C-alpha cells in the first residue's frame, strides 16, 4: 500500500495505475461504514485509492474542525487489511495553498436540509471532491447513503460538469441497535448514545406507516417528531420527507421519497435517512 501526501506525487503515480480505478474519499477515523465502501471498490476495480482529508472548508466557523477525531495509524492498518492500493492523505495547504480562490457550487439542491442548517457546507464538499476527482481521476467514486444529500449533490456535480466517472452510492452501515455508524458517534455520552437510537427507530416507524398505506408526508413528519420528542435528550434540527431528486418537501408521497432527519445531542449532530421506494422488490 502506497501512502502519498502531495498532489504531484499522486499525479505521477496515477499514470502508472491499472484501471479501472475506484476511489473512496473520507475524512478518516474509519469505521465499518467507510470500510464497506472500500470493500465495494475493491470488488469492482483493479486499483483502489482512498483519501483521508479532514476538509476545513466544509466546516462552519462554530463547528468541530479542530476536535474532529483523527487516528491515522489505525486508519492505515484498516486500509492495508482491505488490500487498498493507494492512500492519498495531503496536508491542508497541499489542497488549499495560499491565495486559493476557486469554488465549485451546486445550487438549488444545496439550499435545503443540511444546506439550510450549514450554509457553506456543500460548497466546501463539492470543491474538495472536485479537486480530489481531478487529482485521482477515478473511473468510479464511492459514497455512503448515510449522507444522502451529499451523494445526490455529488452525483449532480459530476453530471453537470461532465466529470466522466460513475458515482456509486452504497447502503448505510449500522450498529447492532440501528444507530448509523459515524465518526462523530464517539462524542456521545452513554446516555446520549442510548437515546440516539430514536433516529433509526423513527425512520423504521416512517417506513411502517408508509407500508401500511400512509401517503400524507406531514403526517409521517409529525409522527416522527412526536416519537423523538418523547425522550428528553436530542433536539430536532429537521425532519424531512422530500422528493429524491429535487429534495423539495412533499405534501403527498406519490413515488419515491427520501425521509431524512438531523438531531442534536449536546454538541453532536446526527443524521440518518431512509428511501421509501414503491414496489421495491415486489
Ligand atoms: P466521512 O469520513 O464522514 O466524510 O465519510 C466518508 C464516506 O463514508 C462518505 O461517502 C459517507 O457517506 C460514508 N459513510 C459514512 N458513514 C457511513 C455509514 N454508516 N454507512 C455507509 N457509508 C458511510
Describe this protein's structure.
The protein is an alpha/beta fold. The chain folds into 2 domains: 169 residues, 3-Layer(aba) Sandwich (Rossmann fold); 88 residues, 2-Layer Sandwich (Pantoate--beta-alanine Ligase, Chain: A,domain 2). Helices cover 36% and strands 20% of the residues. It has 10 helices and 9 strands. The strands form 2 sheets. The chain has a 6-stranded parallel β-sheet, with helices on both faces. A 3-stranded antiparallel β-sheet has the order 7-8-9, covered by helices on one side. Strand 8 and strand 9 form a beta hairpin. The longest helix has 16 residues. It starts with a strand and ends in a 6-residue tail after the last strand. Bound molecules: adenosine monophosphate. The site of adenosine monophosphate (AMP) has 17 residues, from helix 2 and strand 5.
Summed up:
The protein has 282 residues and is α/β, with parallel strands linked by helices. It is built from 10 helices and 9 strands. It has a 6-stranded parallel beta sheet with strand order 1-4-3-2-5-6, with helices on both faces. Strands 7-8-9 form a 3-stranded antiparallel beta sheet, with helices on one face.
CATH architecture of the largest domain: 3-Layer(aba) Sandwich
Percent helix: 25-40%
Overall outline: globular
Query: What is the count of distinct domains?
Result: 2
State the CATH class of the largest domain.
Alpha Beta
Give, in spatial order, the strands making up the sheet with the most strands: 1-4-3-2-5-6
Coarse structural class:
alpha/beta
Number of helices: 10
Task: Predict the CATH topology of the largest domain.
Answer: Rossmann fold
Give the ligands present. Answer: adenosine monophosphate
Provide the β-strand percentage band: 15-25%
